[in-house]
Amino acid sequence: MPEPTPNRVAPGYRSPLPDAFRTALELATAGVPVLPLREGKVPFGNCHTCAGQACGGRPHMQTTGPCQCPAVCHGWAAATTDTSLITSRAWAPAWRQAAAVAYHPGGAGLTVVDLDDAAAIAWAREALPATRTVPTTRGEHWIYRGAMQSSNAVRPGVDIKSLMSYARWLGPGTGTMTDLPDAVRTLAVKKPLTVRPVQPAVTVPAPAGGGECRHRTPAYLERGIAMAEQRITEARSAIHTTVYRTFLAVLSAHGRCGCLTDTHIMRLFTAAQAKGESLRHCTDAWTNARTRLGL
After folding, report:
1. DSSP conformational letter for 70
2. Cα of 68 vs its chain's centroid, Å
3. Confidence of residue 129 (pLDDT cuts 50, 70, 90)
């Protein structure tokens, strides 16, 4: 978790909220994906179409709404380290109304144990290893190095915020950050932590004329799938967009020749789900990529 240094603002940009805006730039520069929050700790829809939930989306939830924006603009998935986007005109209306800055812990490789009250803090001091702590309005954030699935109400007054979630930035905190312990991971074991392989209901047309696929060599095909998995796995922000573009690239290279098998597709879906994508989002991204390519 970085400690903001003397703030730098993009030339020519007049920030309506200097402290939060500049803090967001510092965090983004340090590799922490950020987004503005309005009153009530609620994210914005960061485009004109989705402003004020006009698109019918749910920016206050952990998933994006049904907007058709070219880039993700809702909730945690809109968190970015792209300073040119943060200082862009598109985000300026959000900064004018912003009440605070939030960040995507999972995108920064972090997990926040959100302790809501004194009882939860007392429990954490007994049950969890010490780490960096940040005071909140009612309790504390305990921040660990490492990402995991997010889960609310894992016990009274305790939430876990990491992948597919956001946390309000309340300062760098105090203490030495330590590695995410098993004691925190096991709190979320209400559902399996591992991603279950799913057989996606997707078909890819065979090569026209039934000829031999020019891609059907172990080295070429395996390298392409491995690179796609790596691109998804290493994404630190804009996960939905990264997954869609990766699917589009794979289908552009292999979608018309019939070399993709269910096993290859399952590997891509599994990589996306490991980053917090739902099966529905994976299926939608795959279908949209096929539609764009006319498959």
Report:
1. S
2. 18
3. very high
Average pLDDT, the chain: 77
Look at residues 93, 61, 85 and name the one whose alpha carbon lies nearest to residue 238. 85
Residue with tokens 């986007």: 85
Q: Is the pLDDT of residue 234 over 60?
A: yes
> Which residues touch 276 (CB under 8 Å, ≥6 apart)?
106, 149, 163, 164, 239
Percentage, residues of the chain above pLDDT 90? 27
List residues bridging with 143 in a β-sheet: 112, 132
Residues 202 and 223: their CA atoms lie apart, in Å, by 22
Residue 278: which residues within 8 A CB-CB, separation 6 or more? 63
**Helix/strand/coil for 144:** strand
Percent helix / strand / coil, the chain, rounded to 5: 40, 15, 45
Q: What separation in angstroms does the CA of 28 have from each of 8, 46, 73, 246?
A: 12, 17, 17, 23
In this prediction, residues 195-209 reach a mean pLDDT of 44
**Strand pairing category for 178-179 and 140-145:** parallel
Segment 199-215 shows an average pLDDT of 45
Determine contact, residues 3/172, Cβ cutoff 8 Å: yes
> What is the rounded distance in angstroms from the CA atom of residue 195 to the CA atom of residue 106?
16
* Angle between the N-to-C axes of helices 218-233 and 262-274, in degrees from 0 to 180, rounded to the nearest 10: 20
- The one-letter code for the residue type at 154 is V
Query: pTM for this one?
Result: 0.58
